Amino acid sequence: MLKDIFKYSTVMGAMILPLSAVHAGGHSTSYGPFPVTLQGYSGNTDNSVSYSGQIARHILHDSLKVLAGRGNGGDNSDSLKAEMLSYFSGSDKNKAILAPVTKGAFVMKQGTLNEISSGKNIEGKFYNGAMMAWPGSMKGRDVAFHMIERAAIANKGVDAENGYNWPQLISKFTMGAMAYSQAVDNYLDEKLEANTKPNNKPYKDGKPYTGKEHVWDEGFGYFGAAAHTLSLTADQAYGIAKRKDMASADANGDGVVDLKSEMVFGPAYYAAAFDRSGTKSTNYLSTIMGAYMDGRQLITSAKGAILTDAQRSSLKAHASIIESNWEQVLAEAVFKYAGSTYKDINKMQEDGADQTKAYGAYVKHWGELKGFSMALQSGRNNLGETAGTMNDLILFGPVTLDNSYVTGVTPSGNFKREKRMTWNDYQLQLLKVQQLMVNKFAVSSRVNDQLADLGALADKLGAQSEAETD
Amino acid sequence: MEYTSILDNFLSDFIDPKKRIFLGYLGLSIIIAYTWLILVRQSPLRIAHYQIFNRKIFFSKSAQIDYKLFFVNRAFSLLISPLLITQIAIATFIYYVLHRQNMFYSGQFSDFNKTFVVALFSMSMFVADDFTKYFLHRWMHRWPLLWAFHKVHHSAETMTPITVYRVHPAEGILYGLRSAVTQGIVISTFVFAFGNVVDLYTIIGVNILVFFFHIAGSNLRHSHISIGYWKFLEHVFISPAQHQLHHSIAEEHHDKNFGAALAIWDWLFGSLHLSDVEKNIIYGLSESDSGPKTISDMYFKPFKDIKRILLVYFKKIQRDIFFSVD
Known about the structure:
The complex is a heterodimer. By secondary structure, chain A is mainly alpha-helical.
């Protein structure tokens, strides 16, 4: 009897061991390494994952944001503009990483861009469709150049007169116009078609990855999540982006944070931020990350063969999950900052309020609101009427201290403020922005929900649909 | 829906402290009734017991109709309530409208003391709710088209706490809308003025004032236990006996005491009648009102009455036109 048990357990053990190995390899919690599946590959690399170009662009974006706040009101405008453009449009030089950089015990492995990837820029990957949200009827890239130009002449990135906070506007717009747009409108869209970058050929001659593997990896890179995101909570991912949680960031335990795989950048940071706040009812980060992992595993499982139609349609289903959740994250951000801006207006009107400080916060939050609303319009979907309504409600610029707001730009790029609006009217428009996000994008984290108090009181009182008649 | 959950739904009011027939309130009403009968009316326990649990009342034809309506109306409300406008829709609309004026800005008084704001909100909600109940109730009596529906309630010839549900569904809708509008207005104006400081003082999840109204024996209003208050108090709060008088067929009691909890509205608008607990009151409708008698009458007779009223009205208009042409 004992002998039998021993025999069976040995057999079972022998069966389980390879299965668990497959499990570790096939359903790893980390995005990479993934094996080389390219047929006929003769190099010695054993990892087919590569998305360092996208990480470089996140860093270019973060660094550009830092620069956008370094203006001194005009004196350094030419040099600052040139410096900003060297990050936006690219540079031959090995530029320093201005953000994210080491903060206390949160030590970064890399300090220059070429340590990540050389020759990258934002401009070439920037949404260039019409951007009706910005005055002047410009295309996406021209809007970015316009913002950079204005940031260079501003004082610490703020144009108080017109109500613009350039670091926020540039950063949030770029998060959509580069990262979101490239991922959902390029890599996870047309590049998933059968005749584009097929899986039975290298992405480029000599590369260790197939066409589809690299397309998917690049799509993932734009999301800006750490490779080990599936083993992180939203709080931990948030802590990494904030450079506070070294223990969670340092996945390989080498004492430094590898920006190429261990850092959390903008889009993933916001997904985590909404999961851990508001109603705490969303799972944007793990849903998007899970879809990226599933898609990558599907491609890997094809073992270098051309993807069948069924496999590609399954891949597109994963892409669709990523796109819809990412779009919701941007809508959550619009919702949140519409609420912040609303609250800031109240603060500005309070007796004894520090006007300058309150207005500064208002302009900053409005910049985030506007930037995210522009990001939302940079995706694959033409938002049509929703975009028009959103732009009309948010306006080209915030209502400023004399109640005027930007209505257009002159041919030389200066802003015109030819209309006025009361604070109450503008607050109403911000409420409608929140309502629009709920109606059109079903946002459910709803941070800074300005109608939540009404709902909570109504719930507390309870409906009286059945009459108690006297 | 499972059978058990349907049953749950039908009986949920008995375990919901927001409802008048919550078992806790019913229990307290029984205690109040005993206390009143034994201590104030000096009734022997046996008589008090008989009066409170009078089988002739609880199993009367009228009461049986009440019980049936309770269930049938529940089914109606399950169908109708999702279609009605909610207090949150109204509150949001008014909150938007409040942003259209420029005298005040939202949250202008958010630095007020929280205790004060919460007390003011709880009080305002209660008073506004009671005030709108008074007026709707008054209109239900004064306007013939509404009276056609409200007669269903007044056709009760015996009264038990379940009589509160002896209502035509059309009246249920009107009361539901009244509640939604009242809550919508009060919630939105308070949130606009005081921001997120606004809250409700509650006991077991119920507005504290509504809770006191219920534990003070609100169920005895629809009963045969005639509890009156001191005269001065009956100018402020409607006593059970005052409401019972409202159900009286005696002509001098018609269109009196429309109030729910507060008597001040009746006092202010001339419809107050103090109680007379010595007087034997007969509940129901007078002969001329020809109230509904059967279950089917309860639902369809109001429409027949309305048709008759409108026909008379149109004939009158026709006649007026005819005469004016002459």
